[in-house]
Amino acid sequence: MKTSSRKAKGRKLQKYICSRIADIFDLNYDQEDDNCAIHSREMGQSGTDVVLRGDLNKKFPFSVECKNTEKLNLYEAIGQAKSNQKNKFWLLVHKKNHKEPIAIMDWKTFEYLIRELKNDF
What we know:
Layout (H helix, E strand, L loop, with lengths): L2 H22 L13 E3 L9 E3 L3 H4 L2 E7 L5 H10 L5 E7 L6 E3 L2 H12 L3
Parallel strand pairs: 3-4
Antiparallel strand pairs: 1-2, 4-5
């Protein structure tokens, strides 16, 4: 696969995740709008793959790393997510062809979220 095709595949996942996060918070997602609260980072730039601005940074406390690949070195990808972490938690999103994306986080984060949800019931 060409490098340009790999980057396009990664960009597609990043934009999908941006749109899903925007839907959760009832926000408009427009990749072309520099003032949009959520943005897909351009390929080759350092930092998280999903850029969050303003209040959304507090409401969605994850630094998102996206991997759209058939083979994944899980701990290497987690290391990249951790090294780019700006928010309270890191989140790795992995997608393979013809499969739904999956979210990967550490157990402490999962436990924290479950404890928070438990308080709502």
